[in-house]
Amino acid sequence: MRYVSTRGAAPPQSFAEMLLAGLAPDGGLYLPEAWPHFTPAEIAAFAGQPYAQVARAVLGRLVGDSFTAAERAVDIADAYAGFDDKRIAPLVEIGPNLFLMELFHGPTFAFKDIALQVLGRMFARALAKRGGRATVLAATSGDTGSAAIAALGGLDNIEVFVLHPKGRVSEVQRRQMTTAPFANVHNIAVEGTFDDCQAIVKALFAETDFAHAVNLTAVNSINFARIAAQSVYYFTAAAQLGAPPVFVVPTGNFGDVFAGEAAMRMGLAIEKLVVATNANDIMARALNDGIYASGNAQPTLSPSMDIQVASNFERALFEASGRDAGWVRAAMTQFAKEKSLALPENVRAALRVRYAAARCDDEQTLAAIARVHAQTGRLIDPHTAVAVATADNFKLHSKGPVVVLSTAHPAKFPDAVRQATGLIPPMPPRLSAVLSASEKIVDLSADKGLVQALIEARLPPS
Ligand SMILES: *Cc1c(COP(=O)(O)O)cnc(C)c1O
Which atom of ligand 1 lies closest to the CA of 307? Predict the structure, then answer.
């Protein structure tokens, strides 16, 4: 299995090379040269299998010969051994044919653990095989940072630099990152928005001399290994339900929902992927109006989705255009320059086959938290609530099962939950431990030169 860039101007790579590189050198995102395919019988057989077994099957086809089956099995088993629910991505019925898929049972209580716990282990293995060091640079709107730190903290030959927008992540989210006791972890609070953080990351990757000198790499959802690992729970859910579901996905950077498209392209029958956004609705506007245009990110109750540029949309555009890398390259160049892109009708039509989209504001988010609590006694986090509110709208048109991806534990966002219900969600002890630990953090203005200088100063001498 080889990986090609959405912009068509980078050489194909193996899974391991793609994993270590993150972003393709032409600025594009990697995708499999050809999607592997699972037959309906193979997918039906996933029902009732342990999560790790399905993960081995799905990742096996995507990893190719970068790792042996035995290596893969060890990494996947280790990745999920520490989850506090052995089903890893359990389905919970909260209404007639309406399910929550709980994706927050990993070490940092958000769905990003599911992919990053696997990615970290594969990354360390690939790096050991290749030799040398790696510098991981990540921008986070909240949950990627802690999940990346939990996955990569303490590993040999890897330094981890995490940029978050100062004051725009919850206290629990910040502390989960800044209290990590690892010498190879460096937290930077940037005076700006998540998009400023992401822009700095992109700009530093574009500094090719620097990027090469420090072996710069990314583990955010532009890394296809994340998408690969996340596609697994679409298979387990659909196999378990036995009918093509509608998946409603609280969306920021479009990684999680694109993992659903990946599953579809690997043969999984999905009725629809519903993109649920908060007031930062670039994706709802792009999919409904055909104009992909970024505005100013505004803070909401669901901060991990406060995004105005959805990097992974490039992957969906590549597929929707019939893998027209030349068009993607021109389109992304135009979007970078003008902050706006009109999608051609053929691309819009192809996107409509898979996706629907809607936005929901903070008021509806709070109402959804309150309603689910009143009806089921469960507390849900505000990201999940954005999707629940959206699901309520779309359910009217669906006869099959509707699965809402529940992406964070409610205790990570106690303020929103309390505002909606008057209740403070009980904190799992593993989470409350971060509230008293001491923090390690550097504040910087949104300036890529300052971030570059800090990275150079912090790297161990080679
Ligand atoms: C990251 C995150 C999202 C958004 O996922 P994307 O892959 O960026 O679309 C939604 N909810 C939570 C809790 C998250 O941490």
Answer: 8
